Structures are given as structure tokens and as C-alpha cells.
């Protein structure tokens, strides 16, 4: 059972949510049609006919009541939101009405939906124009531009070209934009002036400069003229900002001086001096005295600051950074003719020792990673350097590599040597394919030596095959080279390469193709 509103009528359902004509004499519950006040009306009466018209059907019989009622309700809500210019909600209700119509097997009138959406868009555009006028009066330049963008988008959705908006009777058009922009910039200029003045009194240099730029820009775009006196005032704002920034910069420097941060302290002092120059006011005696005190304070406090950083770097095993920071700590004290005390020296020594100990594993890790490079270039120098540095750092830390570290070194070296041997085998294989005998033998000899040094395997059988392949390919290569020289008339090089053919054949235990030799020699010009 349930009541379903269908425009001007309401159907009191018998429970199946589908309207059926009343059957006289039936004892089962019957569907009833009433008006919105609950008074019975005829299913074919004027109220019902109006509902049928809204639904786009001829009879209530067989109508699925729930989706049909929801369909009309969503359409009504869509019209209400459209009147308010709430396009998002309007679209939402139209979509829900569309889905309800499909469920109720009703025809959804898309042209009617388009009209409702158009009403919403036009109301929204009208509201935007009203908002744009208020923003222009308030000098809200950025917000105004957002409104203009939204207006252009609405015209696009209405399929109205922007340059035709005014002719089609829309209040949003280029003339309005130009008028409101000029007004907005003119109204915004005094606001920027006030902000520039406030920022200058607060010593906020960048903010002052930014607002001065906006004053000039807004005045130009608002078709206003900045007088000579106003221009002088703007210049004074900037000068004043620099003047008021001096003590702020010195306050920052003082805070860093207490921490012992030399770089930051001197950076802020330098900024204060630059500001004084730009403010056309030399630093006061009190300010100079303050700077001198800060210099001594920061140099006295610097060792603690720098040693704290050194201890942090020590935890990372960064020996060079630790040494650099310790030296800076000593230099800072030296600048005020003092030296690090025993406790500070102990901290420095402890930091360096810790860094040296931790660096060993880091260096061995770098050596491990460098094996991949050996596979690409056959160069062992990096790995040897990392391992040598690891041993040196361990010695400086008054210790030696642990058994686990020694095992790691052995493993790294074995992998590296094997990679170096394999790389040279690859070079030899490539050269052998081209018939370049020397370029095959040289890397193989180097690989053999490396295999002995690193106590890794060397495949003599494979090396022999590569040399035989190089000699075999080399015979053909030397024949072709000799033939080229012969054709050019170069007898010396012709016989040189033919000798190489014989040498390669001899080393292979093969006979030389003398017919081919004779044929090539005949290419030489007769004497």
C-alpha cells in the first residue's frame, strides 16, 4: 500500500504499485484516485487528464506508479533549481527524471529538458553579471576574472558565440567585461597603495615591491594617472621598506649567531648591509656594534654547531664531510684567536673515528655496486680503489677489517675479476668474428693474467677456439686487403698482407691457396 503523487492527483495503491481500474464487486483492495486534498476524483476526470498530459500517456491503467511519481517529482525539482540558476542540481534532477522515465516506460522529452537547462544557464549567467558588478565595485580583480571565465563557459554551453552574445540579448558580453575591468582596476589601485604602505612600514621589502608593481599596473589598466608626487611616494615606500628591514635582518642574524651558524649569520648581516645601502642610510653605531658582537658570538658558538653536524655526518660514514666540518670548527675559533677545548677536540676525534669505522661497510657496498660497471667496461680500478680506501679507513680507525668484511672483499674481488675476464673474452669474440687476430689475442692474454691474479677460471679451450676462428677469418680478411692493395698498385702492402695469410695458415696447419695468391699478384702492374 502507498500513496503516489502524480502532478495534481494522488493514487492510493492497493499494494502492487501498478494502477488498475476498480472492479465492481471485488473484495480485494482497489486502487483509488484522489486530489491532493484527499477527495476522490474520477480516473478520467480533468485532474487525471492533466496528470496524463504531464506524463505523456493516455491512460493510468498499467502505469508503474513509483517511478512515474518520481519522474514528475524530479522534473518539478529540476524546474525549481533552474529558476534559482543552480545548474548542477538542475542537471542532477533531469538525469534522475530521465532514469525514472525509463523505469516507468515513459517517453522522456529531451527538448523539454533542454529548455529547463537553458533556463538554469541563463539565470546563472544573469547572477554572474550581478556578482561581477559587485566585484568590480570592490576592486576584486582576480575574483572578477574567475567570474568572466565562468560566464564564457555558460555562453559556450548555451551554444552562443561570445562575439554574438550582446546581439542575442545576453547581459554578459565584451563591452561589459571591458567596462567592469576598468572599474575593478581603478577601485583596486588604492587598495594596493594601502598594502604597499603597510608592507613598507613592516620592513617587508618583497611584499612592498610586489604591491608597488600592482599599483602601477592597476592604475594603467584602470585608466588612472599616477602623479609625480605619488610616484615619489612609491619610491619612498620602497626605500622605507629597506630601512625598516635592517633591524629585522639583524634579528635573524642574531638568532643564527646564538646557534653558531656562521653562513646564515653572515648571510643575514650581508642582507642588512645591502638594505642600508638601498635605504640610503648607513648603519647606526649601535647596529655596527651589534654586528661585531654577533660575529664574535657566532664564531665562539660555531664549533658546537659544526661538531653537531659532523656527528650527524659521522653516522652516515661520510669521512670527508666530517673532516671538513671539524676544520671549519677550528677555523672559526682561530678567527677569534682561540682554540677548541679538550671536550670539543674529543668530540671531533670521536666523530672522525666513528665515520671511519662506518665508512668501511659503505665503501665495500660501493665496491659491490661497481661490479656491474666492470661487466660493462672491464675496468677494475674503481673496485680496487674502494677496497684500498676501506682498508686505509679501518687502519685510521685503529682497527682492521673483520672476518665478515674480509669474506665480503674476497667475494667482491672474485666477482669483479671474473667479470673483467668475461668482458675481455667478449672483446676477443667480437674481434675473432672480424678476423682481427692481434685484437683477439691481446684481450685473451690480458684475461689470462687477470684470471691468475684473481684466482678465477680461464677457459683455455675456448680461448684456443677463438684464436683459431680469428686466424680462419683473418685469412679471408688478409686476402681481401691484399687484393685491394694490388688493385691500387701497392706492391709492398700487397706482399705484406699475403705474408700474413701464409702466417695465419701456418699457425692453423693449413695450406695456402696459391692460385688465389698468384691471381692477386697478377693484379700488380708489370715492372
Describe this structure in words.
The chain has 18 helices and three strands. With 527 residues, it is mainly alpha-helical. A three-stranded antiparallel beta sheet has the order 1-2-3. Helix 4 runs antiparallel to helix 5 (141-157). The longest helix has 36 residues, at 342-377.
- Percent helix, as a range, is over 70%
Mean pLDDT: 93
Broad structural category: mainly alpha
User: What is the C-alpha radius of gyration, as a whole number of Å?
Assistant: 47 Å
Strand order within the widest beta sheet: 1-2-3
Note the total helix count: 18
Work out the number of β strands. Answer: 3
Beta-strand percentage?
under 5%
Q: Write the element-wise H/E pattern from the N-terminal end onward.
A: EEEHHHHHHHHHHHHHHHHHH
Biggest sheet, open or closed, and with what strands and sense?
A: 3 strands, antiparallel
**Distance between the ends:** 125 Å
List keywords for this structure.
mainly alpha; 3-stranded antiparallel β-sheet; 75% helix; extended
Helix/strand layout:
Blueprint: E1 2-6, E2 9-13, E3 32-35, H1 46-55, H2 65-84, H3 87-104, H4 110-138, H5 141-157, H6 174-201, H7 205-221, H8 228-259, H9 262-278, H10 285-315, H11 319-335, H12 342-377, H13 381-396, H14 403-434, H15 437-454, H16 460-488, H17 491-508, H18 514-521
Antiparallel strand pairs: 1-2, 2-3
Q: What is this structure, in a nutshell?
A:
The protein is 75% helix and 3% strand. The chain is built from 18 helices and 3 strands.
Amino acid at each position: 500500500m502507498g500513496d503516489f503523487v502524480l502532478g495534481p492527483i494522488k493514487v492510493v495503491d492497493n499494494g502492487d504499485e501498478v494502477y488498475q481500474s476498480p472492479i465492481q464487486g471485488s473484495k480485494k483492495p482497489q486502487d483509488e484516485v484522489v486530489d491532493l486534498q484527499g477527495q476522490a476524483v474520477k480516473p478520467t476526470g480533468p485532474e487525471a487528464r492533466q496528470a496524463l498530459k504531464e506524463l505523456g500517456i493516455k491512460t493510468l491503467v498499467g502505469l508503474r506508479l513509483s517511478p512515474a511519481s518520481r519522474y514528475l517529482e524530479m522534473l518539478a525539482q529540476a524546474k525549481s533549481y533552474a529558476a534559482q540558476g543552480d545548474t548542477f542540481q538542475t542537471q542532477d534532477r533531469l538525469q534522475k527524471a530521465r532514469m525514472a522515465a525509463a523505469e516507468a516506460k515513459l517517453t522522456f522529452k529531451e527538448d523539454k529538458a533542454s529548455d529547463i537547462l537553458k533556463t538554469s544557464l541563463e539565470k546563472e549567467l544573469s547572477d554572474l553579471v550581478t556578482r561581477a558588478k559587485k566585484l568590480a565595485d570592490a576592486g576584486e580583480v582576480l575574483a572578477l576574472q574567475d567570474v568572466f571565465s565562468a560566464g564564457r563557459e555558460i555562453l559556450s554551453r548555451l551554444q552562443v558565440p561570445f562575439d554574438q552574445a550582446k546581439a542575442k540579448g545576453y547581459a554578459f558580453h565584451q563591452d561589459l567585461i571591458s567596462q567592469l575591468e576598468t572599474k575593478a582596476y581603478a577601485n583596486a589601485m588604492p587598495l594596493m597603495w594601502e598594502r604597499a604602505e603597510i608592507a613598507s612600514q613592516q620592513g617587508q621589502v618583497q611584499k612592498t615591491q610586489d604591491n608597488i608593481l600592482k599599483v602601477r599596473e592597476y592604475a594603467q589598466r584602470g585608466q588612472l594617472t599616477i602623479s609625480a608626487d605619488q610616484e615619489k611616494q612609491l619610491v619612498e615606500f620602497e626605500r622605507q621598506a629597506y630601512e625598516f628591514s635592517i633591524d629585522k635582518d639583524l634579528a635573524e642574524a642574531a638568532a643564527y649567531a646564538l646557534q653558531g651558524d656562521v653562513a646564515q649569520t653572515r648571510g643575514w648581516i650581508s642582507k642588512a648591509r645591502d638594505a642600508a645601502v638601498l635605504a640610503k642610510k648607513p648603519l647606526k653605531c649601535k647596529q655596527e656594534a651589534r654586528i661585531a658582537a654577533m660575529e664574535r658570538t657566532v664564531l665562539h658558538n660555531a664549533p658546537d654547531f659544526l661538531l653537531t653536524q659532523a656527528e650527524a655526518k659521522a653516522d652516515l660514514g661520510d669521512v670527508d664531510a666530517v673532516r671538513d666540518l671539524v676544520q671549519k670548527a677550528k677555523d672559526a675559533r682561530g678567527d677569534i684567536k682561540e682554540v677548541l677545548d679538550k671536550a670539543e677536540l674529543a668530540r671531533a676525534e670521536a666523530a672522525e673515528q666513528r665515520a671511519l669505522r662506518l665508512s668501511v661497510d659503505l665503501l665495500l657496498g660501493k665496491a659491490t655496486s661497481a661490479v656491474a660497471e666492470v661487466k660493462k667496461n672491464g675496468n677494475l680500478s674503481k673496485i680496487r680503489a674502494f677496497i684500498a680506501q676501506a682498508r686505509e679507513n679501518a687502519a685510521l680507525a685503529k682497527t682492521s677489517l673483520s672476518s665478515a668484511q674480509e669474506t665480503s672483499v674476497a667475494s667482491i674481488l672474485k666477482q669483479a675479476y671474473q667479470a673483467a675476464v668475461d668482458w675481455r673474452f667478449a672483446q676477443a669474440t667480437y674481434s675473432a668474428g672480424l678476423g682481427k687476430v692481434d685484437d683477439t689475442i691481446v684481450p685473451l692474454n690480458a684475461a689470462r693474467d687477470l684470471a691468475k691474479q684473481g684466482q678465477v677460471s680461464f677457459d683455455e679451450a675456448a680461448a684456443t677456439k677463438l684464436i683459431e676462428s680469428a686466424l680462419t677469418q683473418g685469412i679471408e680478411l688478409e686476402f681481401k686487403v691484399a687484393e685491394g692493395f694490388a688493385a691500387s698498385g701497392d706492391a709492398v702492402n700487397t706482399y705484406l698482407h699475403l705474408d700474413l695469410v701464409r702466417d695465419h695458415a701456418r699457425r692453423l696447419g693449413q695450406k695456402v691457396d696459391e692460385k688465389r695468391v698468384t691471381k692477386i699478384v697478377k693484379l700488380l702492374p708489370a715492372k
